[in-house]
Amino acid sequence: MSVVDVPPPPPPGRLGFARHEDVDLFVQKLEDFESGKLSADDWRGFRLLNGVYGQRQDGVMMIRAKLPGGFVTPAQLEALAVVAERFGGGKGHVTTRQNVQYHFVPTADVEAALRILADSGITTKEACGHSVRNWTCCPFAGVANDEAFDPTPYVEALARHLLRGPYSSTLPRKLKPSLGGCCGTDCSQAFINDLGFLAKKRGDELGFQVVAGGGLSTLRRSAITVDEFVPLSETLEAADAVVRVFHRIGNRNNKAKARLKWAIDKIGPEAFLAEYRAEREKIRAEGGVPLVLPPQPAPPTRRPLLAQVTDPDPGYAEWAQHNVRPQKQAGFSSVVIRLVLGDISAAQLRALAPLIVQYGEGELRTTNEQNLVLRFVPDARLPALHRELVRIGLALGGANTLADVVSCPGASSCKLAVTASRGLGGQLTELLDRRPDLVNAAHGLDVKVSGCPHGCGQHYIAGIGFQGGMRKLAGRPAPQYLVYVGGGINADKAEFGRLIGKVPARRAGATLERLLDFYIASGATSRAFWGTVPADKLKAAIQDLTELKDTEAVESDFIDLGEHKAFEVISGEGECAS
Q1: Count of structural domains within the chain
Q2: What is the DSSP string of 345-374?
Q3: CB-based burial of residue 39 (10 Å sphere; 0-12 exposed, 13-18 middle, 19+ buried)?
Q4: Ranges assigned E (strand) in 139-245
Q5: pLDDT digits (tens, 9 = 90+) for 225-258
Q6: 110 with 174, same domain?
Q7: Whose CA is closest to 356, among 334, 374, 333, 381?
Q8: Closest Cα to residue 425, out of 467, 396, 384?
Q9: Closest by alpha carbon to 333, among 148, 145, 460?
Q10: Sequence-distant (≥ 6) Cβ neighbours of residue 322 within 8 angstroms
Q11: Which of 235, 232, 231 is nearest to 243 (CA)?
Q12: CATH number of 36's domain
């Protein structure tokens, strides 16, 4: 028996975020609504603050399981699996905010689903509505070679401090926060969040750069720095100050202009910084906010290795090329489990529970690319883990490459969406998996798809992004996609893609191939290339694909990708905008 570094038996797990009283209150409010004691608007607002969305279909709901930091324990995987198989059509969906969502949950089953999640410590509290949303975090925090320090305990502390806080569920609009630590990158996407913390080291002192006011949608903004360096001991105070300022100055009359970025635009960055500093002084005068770090799982230790694969299975090398990332801890690697468009079946969720104990640190982390990460896998056990992932259908290679397409749910469920973005996302995924030549040659790009301008699929920050829209052909509505290039996030700011054309939905795949051929032929190696090409030249590259005369239209032009009926735009008030 050989001896190598492997994780210890899993700890009992991180403390849960759920409270059963939240579910009890949800049921009580539902009864009040059904009896007429609570108005429809008040019930809607309360329901959203508890992570339950209406869909464009009657009689079903979307439930958002909130996973602060993206942490998922084995017991929580089992709970997620149970909800998926009983109420979620057999699958869950990992979002770009590291949550897990369920669509088409029968309204009558919502209470049962919430109770199953709560039993495992998973909350839906403030997962939606005008609240402090899920705290996202770099999934490689604590294992990245280029981080200033491990920020994991601090994202958990921030999430616990603000959840159910005095301001967290009474904001003018939603506030999306993030925390990361990789030097030279913004893997946590802080610059497109309302509030972001980036781990920094100043001399021998550790702390965070604090940024605020980022966002996508119709007003795209890269966050501004509100504090160059906040010592670790003042982390919670800094977060409180931003939340309190937003609570006070945010627009409560027009929710279309109520996000923090609008408030900063209205009064100006300098005035906002003054408000932030004044709020910090008030918090200090009130006695400050002591930093309390929650207990963390024990680090891996040396233990006997009981089984390993000496000869890797076919496909292992190709899988490991992009799905395996060495850690700063010698002898260990992190494994990215690629999920197509963020989907994972109930059977796969359940099958992962024992694997993360046997091969990793005893928990998974979700990612903002809609994937999963299993960390602290001993290098000697990678082939054995690959074999297990093949067995459960989760060994798809190409993680975080061009082929790993991101997409929002789109019009399949969302009231705001114009197009069925998942249909295009699936089509592009199949195209790129068939064309490894393009994936291997087009370095530095990613592909993201959204069903509407709100940009939940983050197409504005993609190397190549597609936004759902509508055009008229022969007097009929037809689905189309607006094409953006050159978006992304740098270490110090977000850059938003340029619109270069609008193509019929059925030509989006050909458009992607055309742009990739153009990129590769030019010898480009990063998305910065798009910014060096004149706009008219980019538009000319796809001009013929954008044009479609009424007389040239065929019936498939009037059917959205992945759908079987005629395309129509159903206008409604999407609850993600509520």
Answers
A1: 4
A2: EHHHHHHHHHHHHHHSSS-EEE-TTS-EEE
A3: exposed
A4: 177-180, 195-202, 205-212, 224-231
A5: 999 999 999 999 999 999 999 999 999 999 999 9
A6: no
A7: 374
A8: 467
A9: 145
A10: 336, 397, 398, 399, 400, 401
A11: 235
A12: 3.90.480.20
Tokens of residue 417, six digits: 């969406």
Amino acid at 165: G
Residues 161, 234, single domain; the answer is yes
Let me know if residue 15 belongs to a domain: no
Integer Cα distance of 576 and 129 in angstroms: 7
**Residue-range definition of the domain harbouring residue 114:** 20-119
Can you tell me which residue has the tokens 């207990």? 295
First to last CA, the chain: 59
Residues 349-383 pLDDT 10s: 999 999 999 999 999 999 999 999 999 999 999 99
Integer Cα distance of 18 and 370 in angstroms = 23
- For residue 339, give the nearest of 151, 130, 35, 100 by alpha carbon: 100
Domain membership of residue 10 (yes or no) is no
Whether residue 5 is contained in a domain is answered as: no
Helix (H) or strand (E) holding 437: helix 436-441
Distance, CA of 284 to chain centre: 34
Do residues 262 and 320 share a domain?
no
